[in-house]
Design brief:
It contains six helices and eleven strands. It is α+β, with helices and mostly antiparallel strands. The strands form four sheets. A five-stranded mixed β-sheet has the order 6-7-5-10-11, sandwiched between helices. β10, α6 and β11 form a beta-alpha-beta unit.
Length: 210
């Protein structure tokens, strides 16, 4: 980065060439500077769009994939990892009866509540539709994930007010917590997905542990 006289920052490519005289001795340098601020802003925007859900601004499936690859790329030792896989109960009814604009506002509120439930190092993502995923690195055991699932269920208990409607939000959560050495990203997500459907079959608005 460079700075203009008024303090504004801009980014530039700087190319410097050495010019020699007839004897081959250095005579002077020629510098060319190209302002690439706009290009850099565009690249940052495209990178953000590649890794974030456009509706909720949460991480998307691509970021989930890469984060899990990073978790499993390092030395496993005694590290553990946990997932919460969430699916909203009855979301289709909201979309069909009140319209997609109300459904979108509901998803934004859910995203906000999930983010508030999580701390640093915990990735909250929207996997698509009304499915969400939370990655928790370096867990101490299943109790950590059970506490997070309980916190999420409590956060969802309050009605969501959208366009004059007070909507009740319920979610089914599949929870899996495993040693990194005993699994892989694909199996971990599949286990959480299957367990989420077990939670739905068990009565919804609850979590099930893998």
């Amino acid at each position: 980065p460079y700075y203009r006289s008024d303090g504004d920052e801009f980014w530039a490519h700087l190319t410097v060439s050495l010019v020699r005289d007839e004897a081959g001795e250095p005579a002077y340098q020629v510098a060319m500077m190209e302002d690439i601020s706009e290009r850099r802003r565009l690249q940052a925007k495209l990178q953000y769009q590649a890794y974030h859900d456009p509706l909720t601004a949460l991480a998307n499936r691509q970021m989930v994939t890469e984060r899990l690859e990073q978790v499993f790329a390092g030395p496993a030792s005694r590290r553990r990892v946990g997932l919460c896989f969430l699916d909203l109960d009855g979301f289709k009814v909201v979309n069909d009866s009140l319209g997609h604009h109300v459904g979108d506002q509901l998803l934004k509120t859910v995203a906000s509540r999930l983010t508030r439930c999580c701390g640093p190092g915990q990735l909250v993502a929207r996997m698509g539709g009304d499915e969400f995923l939370i990655i928790v690195e370096d867990t101490a055991g299943e109790a950590d994930m059970a506490a997070l699932a309980d916190k999420i269920l409590s956060a969802m208990a309050a009605p969501v007010r959208v366009g004059g409607h007070a909507l009740t939000v319920r979610t089914s959560i599949g929870v899996v917590e495993r040693p990194v050495a005993d699994t892989n990203p694909a199996d971990l997500i599949q286990a959480a997905d299957i367990t989420m459907y077990q939670a739905k079959a068990g009565g919804k608005a609850r979590y099930a542990m893998f």
